[in-house]
Every structure is written in C-alpha cells, then in structure tokens.
Amino acid sequence: MPAVDAARLCTGALASAARVRHLRRAMRPALLDPLFAPLTSLPGIGPKMVRPFARLLGRENPRVIDLLFHMPSGLIDRRARPTIFEALPDTDVTLEVRVDGHQAPPPGRRAPHRTFVSDASGDMQVVHFKTERARIERQLPVGETRWLCGRITLYDGMRQMTHPDRILDAAGLARLPPVETKYRLVEGLAAGHVRRAMDAALARLPELPEAIPPDLLAREDWPAFKAALTRIHQPETPVDALPTGRAWSRLAFDELYAHQVTLALVRQTQVKAGGRSSRGDGHLAAAILAALPFSLTGAQEAALSAIRSDLAADTRMLRLLQGDVGSGKTVVALLAAAGVIETGRQAALMAPTEILARQHLETIAPLAAAAGIGVALLTGREKGRARAAILDDLREGRIGLIVGTHALIQDDVAFADLALAVVDEQHRFGVEQRLAFSRKGRAVDMLLMTATPIPRTLVLTLFGDMDSSELREKPPGRLPVDTRAISLERLDEVVAAVGRALAQGAQAYWICPLVEESDTSDLAAATDRAAHLAQVFGQQAVELVHGRLSGSEKDAAMARFASGAARILVATTVVEVGVNVPNASIMVIEHAERFGLAQLHQLRGRVGRGEKASTCLLLYRGPLSETAKSRLAILRESEDGFRLAEEDLRLRGEGDVLGTRQSGFPGFKIARLDVHGALVAQARDLAGRLVPGNPDLSGPEGERVRTLLYVHERDAAVRLLSAG
Ligand code: ADP
Ligand code: MG
Questions:
Q1: d(Cα 294, Cα 296) in Å, to the nearest integer?
Q2: Please, which residues have CB within 8 angstroms of residue 3's CB and are 6 or more apart in sequence?
Q3: Which domain holds residue 603?
Q4: Buried b (16+ CB within 10 A) or exposed e, 243-269
Q5: Best of 330, 423, 604 to mutate for ligand 1, by most ligand atoms within 8 A of CB?
Q6: 231 is a domain residue
Q7: pLDDT classification of 463: cutoffs 50, 70, 90
Q8: Does position 435 have pLDDT exceeding 60, yes or no?
Q9: Which atom, in ligand 1's list, is nearest to the CA of 363?
Q10: pLDDT per residue over 260-301, tens digit each?
Q11: Whose CA is nearest to atom 22 of ligand 1?
C-alpha cells in the first residue's frame, strides 16, 4: 500500500505512537553528530580557511565527514634519508644538512631568498619565494643542523629544494612519522593544512557500533571503522594507506554494503508498492511521429516497444536505456512520455546540468507542440513568480511533460499525477536522488538513460535488478569522424589546420585537460589556451566555458557558439560540452592521454552531427604509456560505444568504465571498482540475506546497519523504512 494512503488510514493514538517510533528511528543517532558537524567546528578552520576546503571537498558547507572521506592520493616515505649527493631529483627525501648562510633578495626585487646548506657529500640551496626573511632565518639558523623534507630539483646544474615540506630540528625529527599521506590539493591549501585538519577530525572520531558480521570481519582481518580511518590518514606502514590495504578495503566494503542495503530496501518497497498500468491509445505518439523529419531506427522501435509493454504492465518499470551519444535516446524518451500523457498522467525528464536540460527542451518543444502536449523547463534558474507559475501548472496537470535538473526533486515540487520519470545521464545521480524523483508520484515508472554503455555485469552490481535496452544502431546518414592522434609538439600545425577549416566556415571545440592536482590549474590551462587562440583568430572568434561560470554566463557563451557568432569553443570538462551544434565539425582534445576512453568517445560524439565530414584531433604529450597508446589506437579504429566500453574495461579495470577519473565510480567516495570490485558481490550477498530477514531493520543488528546507512548518507533509505 502506498505511503500516503497508509498514513491516511492510520488514526488516533495508534498513528501517533507509530509516528513517534518512526521519527525516533528515522533520526541520525547523536553519536554521529561530531562527524556531521561543520568543518569550521575543527580548531584552526575559520570562515576564511574553510573556503579552499569547500573547493577541495566539492561542497559549499563541508562537514567533518567530508574531510575524513577525502582519501589520500599517495604516500611519502619519510624514511628515505640519502645524502645531498645521493638524492634523486624529483623524489621525496629527508636530508640532514648544516646551514651555511643566507642570501636575501635586494629590497623590492622579486628574486627568491636563498639559503646555502651542505652535508659531507656536497651542498645545495634552499629557495623561498615571497617569504619573510626573519622567518626563514629563524627556521634555518646559520651553523645549526636541520632536517629538510621535500624534493630536490636541478637548476642550472645546481641542486636546490624549493619551499621544503618541512624544516625540522632534532626534536621535530623525532616526531616525524615514517610515512605521510599526500592529498589532492587546491589553490590556497597546502598538504600541512589538510593533515592538521585531518588530525583534528580524527581526534573527534567516535567508535561506531560494528555493522559487519563478526565472521566476515575476522575472515578479512579488517580493522574497526575508527581504526581504519586512523590508519589511512595516519599510516604507520605504507600499506596502511593504500586502496588495496585492509583499512581502505574495510571502508570500501562499508560503503558498498550501505549501497546494497539501500538497493535491497528500495526493491522491497517498490515490490510492496506495486505498479500501475499506463496504456495509452497512441494518438499523441502518432502526432509526434508524424512531425518527426525521420523515421525511427530498428533499435529505437525495439526499445520503445519494450518500454510500452513495461508501462502497460501493472508492475513498476525500472529500465536502463543505453545508447551512444547521438543514437537518439531523447526521441525514445519523448515517445514513452507521450504514452503516459495519453492516459492523462504526467512525465518528467531530469538531466544533470542546466545546459543538457535546456537542450532537451529545445529538441522536445516543437514536437510536443505538434502533438499539443504542454511542456515546461524547471532548473535552478527558474525563480520567483515564473517558478511559482510552473509549479502551479504542474500541480494542476496543465503540464504533461516537464524537463529539468535537480530542481525537479525539490520538496515543493508536486505533480498532479506523475507516472513516468526519465533520468538522463543517470550515472550522475545517486540512488537517493532517483528515489526522491520516483516519490513525486504514485508507482512511478522509471526510465534511466545513459550514453556511457555499462556492461551487463556492472549494471547488476551497481544498480541491482534492472531491465536494459540498447540502441546499438545509429540513425542513418552519419559520417564517420576522422580521428587522429597528434603529439602536442605539433600544436602550431594543429592551430594552422584548424584555422584553414574555420576559414571554410567550420566551427571547432577545443577541450582542455583535466588536471588531478588542482582544479585551478584546469581553469588556468583553458584560460591560457583561449587567450592564445584569441590572439591567432581574434577575440570575437573564441568563447570560453568552464565550471566557475554562472549558469547564465555559460548559456551566453554557448549561445554565441551555437549561433555561429563564435567559431571556437574552449571548454574545461565534458559536462559543459553537452551540446548539439551540428555545424561544429572539429574536436580538439588536449592531453588526450589524461582522459578515459569513455570520456574521449563522449567528447568526440559532439561532432559528426551535421552533413560535414568531421575530424577529432587527440593531442597527446609523449611518452605515452602502453595503455594510453592502446586507448588512442582503439579510439581511432572504432566509434562503437559498446565496443569501446568493453575495451575500456579490459584495459583499465572496471574503475574507469563510467568515464570518471581514476578515483572511483559515481556516488562512491571510498570504493574503487577496479580495486574493490570483488567486494561488490559480497556486499550484495550480505544485504540480500539481511533485508528479507529483517525488513524494517529492527533490533540491535538493525540499529547497527542504520548507523552505517547514516554514515554513508543513505538517509533516504532509512526514511523508506519509516514510510513503510
Ligand atoms: P542522444 O540523446 O542519444 O545523444 P539524441 O536523441 O539527441 O541522441 O539524437 C541525436 C540527433 O539524432 C538528434 O538531432 C535527433 O533528432 C536525431 N535522430 C534521432 N533519431 C533519429 C532517427 N531515427 N533518424 C535520424 N535522426 C535521428
Ligand atoms: Mg542525450
């Protein structure tokens, strides 16, 4: 029975007793409060310092737990103690040196401060830029012995260490840990800041009740939650902080287990809730088909008929529609929507970004108009009265199909009768968001779309039981994209070739690299490239789009490119390039070696959409690893996204298949599918045994698992329990 009806039937004392019980159980245990406290609750993190942390952790108001789950990106071995002469350049070392003298820059000059140091094997310089002289001289007193942690570089044959990580006296050395963690950083944040904050966070970390059954814990020899996090961030041996180590694996299992329990609970509620049959008479679909300038491909027909029979059945649909960029998923989604709108119900399409949502609406609006379907757009930018009007129309059923972003799942968005929820680029949403979406109506059928093909085995592990349709066949008439790999050393030739194409009326995308260490360098690279291209082709010809622009700035830049006013669009990431500009026939990807196969394929899919023959230039910086070489070779050979996905899996392990950076897969902070893939099945089995035996997670074991769900922010799953 659906939650609302059940709630209405409950009356009087019974209902309020049940409510109190539910409320109590649906609240995060107070034990976890220190974890979910704002990061500013830690000593040393004030309103100013929190800003770079917010960028690092990708969250406007970061919390202690966000920091604790920010995993190290590597390790530094502080036991490496060579002499100056022996030290390898660009390798982390700790050197014992004598301070011989200082050379401060003349006042007002930009030159660095140099400190001369030596040991029995030779001498070198310590270089400080923009650092107060007195401070350096205090840290490095002439005649004393000091220990320097950092990397040596060779500059004009001279050894130097620029801004050592640490400068220690004997007492400091005694406290130096044998290994130290490294973290991905952003501008304004040094490794020391992160480590100090981490130490403070670890100091407040409570012991948690153990959610993993004792036999499994013993078999794997896993440490407890608190011990695991402590080992990772304050390792005593190198293996402590590795993804393959026991500490990390344990936390990965926690996360995967929380996810699998969530899936099991969702499945249980959906089965309980049952489904509804939506059997349209086909009149709106027919009107749309008549308005289409093409006929459906066989693959589209097949997917649509599978969807139609799901909709007609009185069970809930949960179907994945997989198809390469440009394979025509949007039309399928629209025709599916028409099916439920024909029965007087509503459909909604949610996309991960504003640009994508807007673009879907542009495709859909004329077709919907031809069929007389009311459509609207709802994103973060619809505000005030305009938004209120849309919400009104939605609630009154005047809108048949709404297209939007996360804005669609905000609390105050209500539908007259939502029957079909379509999620585009579904892997960019969490289970909870999908759940929230599906709760906007009664027994809502779900269609999840993805342009990143996911092998069947992974579909099961990641998303649980789900049906899947594939659009392997592309619409007719598409020209293959001429794909070439070129060394970045030949940049000038590439710019010249692009120039010749522009002169003939073409337009080009120019994608700048992803840089792991810092999000600001991404931006710098794109800004520099845009400036460079503007110098060659003129300011008017070049537009720049990156993640720091506001929605309207992005739109304005995109619009200038789409209208042809700008000839080159420089962009930082895949996200911003989710656009359809048929006249664009050139795709340049800088540092192609840093992208995953899936991402490269996605990017390439932005060209080859019009009548013109298209080109994709993969600019790489050599020497290439064997894997990178194979990746670029396969990309040149094939444009079949499914084949590329399989190759990707083979080449790089499962971790990259979803087109994310090496770190992991969407929605997971700790688990990495390439390393912890084997744990998925275990987590799934365990959840599969737990939930049917204890469907409302009651009793002491249930409480322990609830705590785990809260730690991994599967709050929505816990709410499911209280909604019954
Ligand atoms: P996807 O969302 O799968 O990336 P779209 O739905 O945006 O792809 O379709 C890409 C383009 O192909 C659109 O311009 C669309 O109108 C067109 N298209 C879709 N289906 C067909 C078809 N059967 N024949 C020709 N063109 C099609
Ligand atoms: Mg699409």
A1: 7
A2: 723, 724
A3: 481-638
A4: bebbbbbbbbbbbbbbbbbbbbbbbbb
A5: 330
A6: no
A7: low
A8: yes
A9: 16
A10: 898 888 777 766 667 889 999 999 999 999 999 999 999 999
A11: 475
pLDDT above 80 for 466: no
pLDDT band (50, 70, 90) for residue 516: very low
For residue 347, the domain's CATH number is 3.40.50.300
Q: Is residue 67 part of a domain?
A: no
Cα separation, 126 vs 108, whole angstroms: 20
Q: E strands, 329-400, where?
A: 346-350, 375-378
pLDDT at 602 over 60: yes
**CA 407 to ligand 1 center in whole angstroms:** 26
d(CA 323, CA 472): 6
Question: Do 302 and 332 lie in a common domain?
Answer: yes
Determine the Cα–Cα distance for residues 531 and 529; give it in Å rounded to an integer.
5
Helix (DSSP H) and strand (DSSP E) numbers for the chain? 27, 22
Q: Which residue has the CA at smallest separation from atom 11 of ligand 1?
A: 326
Q: Which atom of ligand 1 is nearest to the CA of 295?
A: 23
Which of 331, 364, 425 has most ligand 1 atoms within 8 Å of CB, for mutation?
331
Domain assignment of residue 649, yes or no: no
**How many CA atoms lie within 13 Å of 675's alpha carbon, on the beta-carbon side?**
18
pLDDT in tens, 75-97: 888 888 999 999 988 888 999 99
The rounded Å distance from CA 359 to ligand 2 centre is: 9
Tokens of 57: 């952790």
β pairing state of 445-450 and 418-423: parallel
Mean pLDDT comparison of 214-223, 587-596, 615-624, highest-scoring range: 214-223
Total count of domains within the chain: 3
In a 10 Å sphere around its CB, with 0-12 CB exposed, 13-18 middle and 19+ buried, how is residue 625 labelled? exposed
